[in-house]
From TrEMBL:
Its EC number is 5.4.99.27. The active site is at residue 67. Residues 158-353 form the TRUD domain. This is tRNA pseudouridine synthase D. Belongs to the pseudouridine synthase TruD family. The lineage of its organism: Bacteria, Pseudomonadati, Aquificota, Aquificia, Desulfurobacteriales. It comes from the Bacteria. Signal peptide: none annotated. Keywords: Isomerase, tRNA processing. GO terms for biological process: tRNA pseudouridine synthesis. It catalyses: uridine(13) in tRNA = pseudouridine(13) in tRNA. It holds the Pfam family TruD. Responsible for synthesis of pseudouridine from uracil-13 in transfer RNAs. One of its GO terms (molecular function) is tRNA pseudouridine(13) synthase activity.
Length: 389
């Protein structure tokens, strides 16, 4: 992917620091813990913590999922009934082991540090935002003029608040969303899509062969799922073996795709725009000029529109058009499927303005940026526009 030829060449090129809403105190019901990690996803680090420190995963609170290919700092809450202290872990010979320290610029691992105590359990979204320091490499001469021009657009008008590629981790091939199978009651198709996307596989149904082929690259819960199929579980019961936060990602991925389409169509209907490549051959459209920025700045776009019906007539038509295109049925809204409620409604801001946006360093081939974004906004979405890649 072209964007990643410019960023994330090394973990130190992409540094993320969570801006917490909680302040540690001297007493409280929960430990307030800083998790610093490199080359590890938040969920993987949490699974290791749960397994090695004997803390049930549901007892560990966290506010957001941070990038794997980065050096990140975020915060956790753990009930004081469990034992936790400063610890570091590294992946050595494919096994997680406790170590004295981690070289975050070169090694795959994470460290925990207890900062104090808090009264509140952290849940998703419980943060002020995220602070980024990003180094762009291969910053060629022909890119600079475009970069500085687009930087002025962002300073004046912000940028479209699209969901970034991290939101689509469960999409293995173009338009192949696990949730679309679930909504039709096709759990076998959902599992096939989960493991293979739209790729054809001639041994689907031969669960022992599937296990033998895939197991080296699978998470433990994915192995449990296939073992369940080997024992004769139905596809629906096997699907429920997946942790709920994984199952919910299928819903988030599809709804986020639809929401991105609403915003893209809205921008193209109202403003001068440029299309920029995204994942799976999708496109994102970025405005280059806005004549009603005070209005756009306040605009919120619903996920489905069945509970939060838009007043904006253009937006209302676009939501209807996109839902018709992807054959969305009203009976799917708030549907219970696979042990979760899906296609729920909500509101998300159409645009976001980065704060503290500045250039820290620049050379002939690199530029280092610093900025902060509110919860749920993506640095990679901003960078795609600035670099047009």
């Amino acid at each position: 992917m072209k964007l990643y030829n410019k960023i994330k060449r090394e973990p130190k090129d992409f540094i993320v620091e969570e801006i917490p809403i909680l302040e540690p105190k001297e007493e409280g019901k929960y430990y307030f813990v800083k998790l610093k990690k490199s080359n590890v996803s938040t969920l993987e680090a949490l699974r290791v913590i749960s397994r090695l420190l004997k803390i049930p995963l549901k007892e560990v609170g966290f506010a957001g999922l941070k990038d794997r290919y980065a050096i990140t700092e975020q915060y956790l809450t753990v009930p004081i009934t469990y034992q936790i202290e400063r610890k570091c872990f590294k992946l050595i010979n494919n096994r997680w082991k406790e170590v004295n320290s981690v070289n975050f610029e070169k090694e795959m691992g994470f460290c925990l540090e207890v900062l104090g105590y808090v009264e509140k359990f952290l849940s998703l979204g419980d943060l002020k935002g995220n602070r980024f320091i990003i180094t762009v490499k291969n910053f060629e001469k022909n890119m600079r003029e475009r970069f500085y021009k687009n930087l002025e657009v962002v300073k004046s008008y912000g940028f479209p608040n699209y969901f970034g590629e991290q939101r689509f981790g469960s999409v293995k091939s173009r338009d192949d969303f696990v949730l679309r199978y679930l909504l039709k009651g096709d759990f076998d198709g959902a599992l096939r899509s989960y493991f293979f996307g739209k790729s054809s596989v001639d041994y689907w149904g031969d669960w022992r062969r599937l296990y033998k082929t895939l197991s080296p690259a699978l998470e433990e819960y994915e192995k449990d799922l296939i073992r369940g199929l080997m024992r004769g579980l139905t596809a629906e019961k096997a699907f429920r073996i997946l942790p709920k936060n994984v199952r919910l990602m299928f819903n988030f991925a599809f709804q986020s795709f639809l929401w991105n389409e609403y915003l893209r169509e809205y921008i193209e209907a109202k403003y001068p725009f440029e299309r920029v490549p995204f994942i799976n051959n999708w496109k994102l459209s970025y405005y280059t000029q806005v004549y009603d920025i005070d209005y756009l700045r306040k605009l919120e776009i619903p996920y489905t529109g069945h509970q939060f019906s838009p007043v904006d007539k253009t937006l209302k038509k676009i939501i209807k058009k996109v839902q018709q295109k992807y054959e969305i049925k009203k009976e799917w809204f708030d549907k219970e499927v696979g042990g979760m409620r899906v296609m729920t409604d909500g509101l998300r801001k159409a645009v976001v303005f980065p704060e503290e946006l500045k250039i820290l360093e620049k050379t002939k081939r690199t530029i280092k940026l610093k900025f902060s974004l509110p919860p749920g906004s993506y640095a990679t979405v901003l960078l795609r526009f600035l670099l047009k890649v």
